[in-house]
Amino acid sequence: MFLSVHGTIGLIIGKYCQNPILAFFLGLISHYGCDIIPHGDTKAPKKYNNLIYWGLAGIVDLSILSVTLLGLFILNKIDIYNPNIAATFLGSILPDFLLLGYFLSNKRLFKIPFKLHNFLHNLISKKYEINFYLGLALQFILFILLLTILI
Ligand SMILES: [Zn+2]
């Protein structure tokens, strides 16, 4: 699932959670929980199935998330200095950075988060995956809906 969706969910949870440690774990759980929902990633056309594509997609996704975060902060819709919001935000995006750590550095160090991520990601998707482009569209719509909660 897009980091921008995970991060936005994290921001929403952080607004309502009053404990930064709990907030962090709720963010983490929200990430893994949302990744269980089929969202088309595993049906990516073969031409997109390489590290360059996923790297570029990740940069675009992270850029959208950064602009969103900055915009919400400038509009005074979120307080990024609030420890609860910061904790859920970090928890909600951390699993994908652990995945990146697995691909770019020591595979042994990141083996457990990698296996957990893949297991949960494929739990339903392996049997009931949706079309890649439908997944992109639904995630985009979800992202917009989530933003309306924050604005
Ligand atoms: Zn993920």
Q: Can you give a write-up of this model?
A:
It is a single chain. This protein has one domain (3-150). The protein has helices at residues 3-16, 20-36, 51-74, 83-104, 111-128, 132-150. The chain has 6 helices and no strands. Helix 1 (3-16) runs antiparallel to helix 2 (20-36), helix 1 packs parallel to helix 3 and helix 1 (3-16) runs parallel beside helix 6 (132-150). With 151 residues, it is mostly helical. The radius of gyration is 15 Å and the shape is globular. It starts with a helix and ends with a helix. The chain binds zinc ion.
Main features:
single chain; 151 residues; mainly alpha; 75% helix; 0% strand; binds zinc ion
